[in-house]
Amino acid sequence: MRPSRPSITRRVDSFPRALMVRLVFVALANLLLGVRTLLGLPFRLLAARHRPPFVRFRLSGDLPYREQRQRRFWPGGSRPEPATVSSLESFQEALGLLAKDPKVKGILLELEGLEVASAKKDALVKLLTDFRAAGKRVVGWAVSVDNLGYQVLCAADEVLLAPAGRLELVGYAAEATALGEGLSRVGIQAHFVRRGDYKTAPELFTHAHVSDIQRQTLEAFLDERYADLVETVARGRKRTPEEVRAIIDSGPYSAQRAVTAGLVDAVCSEAELPARLDERRRDEKDPDDAEEPLEPMATWLATQPFPPVKWRPAKRRPKLGLVTISGMIVPGKGSGGIGMKTAGAESVVKALRTAGRDKRAKAVVLYINSPGGSALASELILEAVQRVARKKPVIAYVDQVCASGGYMAALGAKAIWTAPHAIIGSIGVFAGKFEGSGLMERLGVRRTIIARGENAGIFSTSRGFTPHERASLEAEVEETYQAFLAHVAKARGRTKEEIHERAEGRVYSGTRALAAGLVDRSSSFEEACRHAMDLAQVPPGKFDLALYSSGERRFTLLQVLLSMSSTRLYALCPTSWSMAGFTTRQDG
Predict the structure, then answer these.
(1) What pLDDT score does 551 carry?
(2) Which of 26, 215, 389, 402 is the right S-S partner for 368, CB 3.0 to 4.6 Å?
(3) What are the Cα distances from residue 185, in Å, to 210, 402, 465?
(4) Is there a contact between 390 and 365 (Cβ–Cβ < 8 Å)?
(5) What is the DSSP code (8-state) at residue 295?
(6) pTM metric for this prediction
(7) 220: closest CA among 498, 583, 417, 512?
(8) Are strands 507-509 and 266-267 parallel, antiparallel or unpaired?
(9) What is the pLDDT of residues 220-276, one digit of tens each?
(10) CB-based contact 518:416 (threshold 8 Å)
(11) CA-based torsion, 351, 353, 355, 360: positive or negative
């Protein structure tokens, strides 16, 4: 007799049951949505007579690309301001709905502390440009606005500033740091071996002054960012580039000076905004009447007899996996905390494995915002990305930093997409340690190394490297560098010699990295996501974005210094500089 196979039978029977349960759940959920919509119909019909001609939106902080699950409780017990935009996705949906309403004249866009990557700034500008192309008006208003925020406001029809406001249009500045002399004064010496003159990361600890190569690297990025600022302002305010450069050189501006210079159209307090947007109110308003506030998107939805309802689909939408590598790459797990953001290799690998095993996730987007870190940890992540890429399409996307070990991790993807002003490359390796003998001597601490083995004391912080130890370390750095070149050459379809010409720590913007063949395309996050689904042969349409947490943790600068006190290999971007007005501020 043939043996029975009950386990297989049970699995087959479970599919129809699971499908029936889902259909019943979806039907009940949609029924409740329908009933709620119908019950609110009379109230919405009454409110339709007071449909706002202008809808207010508030841009603040760093907007995520996609809508995220809201927390039930907010810190301090306060909810976000009703007009605050929660994501680029929700903002796009809202503008799409308003563009179709003939009774809506436009929107008021309020900026307060906007801090987004250049790629998100470009996405906001495109959304506003498309909205204006639909025949709607965009009015921008702020109390204080910097370079980034002003570039967004330049996409508006009219720019307003509060009477006490300021326009911090001053261009970009970079500050590079050299700690070498400062460390030596307290009795600490940094000993590092690096591969390539452009691998300037250890210069933060070894040099007394900023090197010419570091300066040239910074100037290249400043030139690109400054040119983009000039072009955006010239296009938005209808000025020549020469005029814009002269205007920037005269900044910052008070509200009144900004009006005089033609950078904003008028000075207007928040209380005066409704009357300014609605001329009828301005002409008929009784001075003793209380000012009616400008309404957010939720109020507009409440005036629609049949507002858009997010019905639950009977069939699940295809899912796109999202794995993030954010911060300095370190070995081990990630955990919560306060300080410098890091990405633990063990946690990232676990997230990648989960995304690879999830059958509903048809493809994966690897979002990278990392200057690199541990060479070993970065290579472990690379191997995990390669394993997932053998099962399903993987696209790496960068909108801020993907350098050194971060770039190594991206090499396992099917393609690397980037924003124009992202930081890419820094292909190189360095290793070293900190010697604290001078500090110990000042404190009266005496340490003596007694060793058996030529390199037994290589990890000691009591002294620097012996010639033999340094030679061994240089050999290991060279071996790791050659392996890095081999990874890049294989992934990019070039020879090691060709990659070496682009490596040795050289850093590129997204635009220059594309020309150098280090990335495949310069585009937006949403287009990268859609391309990943296309590679998975998923038909065009909506899809869900599922985040697989990589468990980033935070380190203090002291912890980072202590972690580098022993001899290790690092693939880390030169991040000992920051740029005023940049969305990414780094020290490490």
Answers:
(1) 52
(2) 402
(3) 18, 34, 20
(4) no
(5) B
(6) 0.83
(7) 512
(8) unpaired
(9) 999 999 999 999 999 999 999 999 999 999 989 999 999 999 999 999 999 999 988
(10) yes
(11) negative
Q: Is 368 exposed, middle or buried (0-12, 13-18, 19+ CB in 10 A)?
A: buried
Whether omega for the bond prior to residue 252 falls within 30 degrees of 0, making it cis, is yes
Strand partners, 114: 61
Element (H, E) at 385: helix 375-389
pLDDT at 588 over 50: no
- Taken in order 468, 471, 477, 483, the sign of the CA dihedral is negative
Tokens of 213: 């190569």
DSSP state for residue 84 in the 8-state scheme: B
Question: Quick one: tokens of 174?
Answer: 């970079």
Identity (one letter) of the amino acid at 217? T
> Which of 378, 369, 472 is closest to 422 using CA atoms?
369
What is the sign, positive or negative, of the torsion defined by CA atoms of 532, 535, 540, 542? negative
Query: In which residue are the tokens 């290991």 written?
Result: 476
* Residue 341: strand, helix, or coil: strand
Distances (CA, A) of 546 to 86, 103, 205, 264, 423: 17, 37, 40, 41, 26
| Residue 310 β-bridge partners | none
What would the mean pLDDT of 181-190 be, rounded to a whole number?
A: 92
Evaluate if residue 396 carries a pLDDT over 60.
Answer: yes
Q: Tell me the C-alpha distance between 520 and 398, whole Å.
A: 12
Single-letter code of the amino acid located at 196: G
